[in-house]
Specification:
With about 350 residues, the chain is α+β, with helices and mostly antiparallel strands. The protein is globular and about 60 Å long. It binds flavin-adenine dinucleotide.
Length: about 350
């Protein structure tokens, strides 16, 4: 039997975002594991209102109140759908914690997710910005995104090709009002050449010549704990800007003028990805603080809330960071988190 959803009016979102900023939702809808999404969405109190899914709020900047429904799902099912010698086809519900999913996959003897260890958040948000870290992006493994299509009013299964995955982007990020991701299916291999080329990973593994997936995940977690501020200690949403992708001739000219500016492959020889952290640090922002809004002293790409910053203060600071990078280098920085309640171009 399906359990009823809960619907609360005028709810503080402060505990539901890792920046720890205050904003209110007109409604908070929670669909329990045994409930059904269509029934919950048909609740007459909320029909026709704008809707925003939320996981752990680790990629959100709330600049104003949300005048509609904030939706939390609670299903945390995990399953191996098919298993053979080379790998397995697995399924995870949207509310499964991402890092726990990484550990579960490793415990099944599967590889692929180890470089994505310790990314905060839930499985349902992973495809939204095609999460990536240390040389791996999740689109490499996603076979199907199960989602509720609010336009059509039905459940759909989207193939990876349907999802428009690119660097920290997908069709979901551009059609935010349309999709509610309910589960992911992934094909994970049993064996995979370890990806250790990202700066710092080999060094962290030290003398381990043939590290296991569990050892790689542990090394990635240690690096991340050192490099990134912990949101439970100081509010943040990880990288605030994407690394900018520019035409290769622009990158070559910038690197000639600024020796040491790191650049990376961007999928095509015509373009290069630049280090946003380097550009921001060169503008003197690392560790700077304006009232309670600041740039992390650990990592120039991370905007932090030292205590009681508002979303508007954090956004204003981020805009000043982007303006100074534009003025000095002529490069546009695009925000990575979803910015809610402000008249901005979404990252
Ligand atoms: C310290 C720190 C480090 C981070 N490091 C990384 C990193 O290395 N790589 C990386 O890619 N990201 C990183 N992030 C960003 C963040 O962890 C990821 O984007 C994560 O996937 C967000 O998950 P969430 O559940 O918190 O999503 P939320 O912040 O709650 O939501 C993010 C977006 O997804 C949408 N959404 C959430 N759930 C659903 C759903 N079920 N259906 C449809 N839309 C949904 C939301 O509406 C919103 O637009 C980091 C964040 C922090 C705080």
């Amino acid at each position: 039997m399906s359990e009823d959803h809960t619907l609360q009016a005028d709810v503080s979102l402060r505990p539901l975002n890792t920046f720890g900023v205050e904003a209110r939702a007109a409604w908070l809808l929670t669909v329990p594991a045994s409930g059904t999404l269509p029934e919950a969405l048909a609740d007459p109190r909320i029909v026709g209102l704008p809707l925003m899914c939320i996981g752990d709020g680790s990629n959100l900047l709330l600049v104003g109140d949300f005048p509609g429904v904030v939706l939390r799902q609670a299903s945390t099912g995990l399953a191996v759908l098919e298993d053979d010698d080379t790998g397995a086809h697995v399924r995870a519900d949207a509310a499964v914690g991402w890092d726990g999913f990484v550990d579960w996959s490793i415990a099944q003897g599967l590889a692929g997710l180890e470089n994505l260890a310790l990314i905060p958040g839930r499985v349902g948000a992973a495809p939204i910005q095609n999460i990536g870290a240390y040389g791996t992006e999740i689109d490499e493994f996603i076979t199907t995104v199960e989602a509720w299509d609010r336009n059509a009013g039905r459940s759909v299964r989207l193939s990876s090709a349907d999802c428009g995955f690119t660097y920290r982007d997908s069709r979901f990020k551009h059609e935010l009002d349309r999709w509610i991701v309910t589960a992911l299916e992934l094909r994970l291999p049993r064996l995979r050449e370890p990806r250790l080329d990202y700066p710092g990973v080999r060094e962290e593994l030290g003398s381990l010549a043939n590290p296991s997936t569990a050892e790689i995940a542990a090394a990635i977690r240690r690096i991340r704990r050192r490099k990134l501020p912990d949101p439970s200690v100081i509010g943040n949403a990880g990288s605030f800007f994407k690394n900018p992708i520019v035409p290769t001739d622009v990158a070559v000219a910038l690197i000639a003028a600024n020796p040491g500016l790191p650049s990376y492959a961007a999928g095509t020889p015509e373009r290069r990805k630049l280090s946003a952290a380097w550009l921001i640090e060169a503008c003197g922002w690392r560790g700077r603080r304006e009232r309670d809004a600041g740039v992390s002293s650990r990592h120039a790409l991370v905007v932090v809330n030292h205590g009681n910053a508002t979303g508007a203060e954090l956004l204003a600071l981020a805009r000043r960071v982007a303006e100074s990078v534009r003025a000095r280098f002529g490069v546009e920085l695009v925000p990575e988190p979803r910015i809610v309640g402000a008249d901005v171009v979404r990252g």
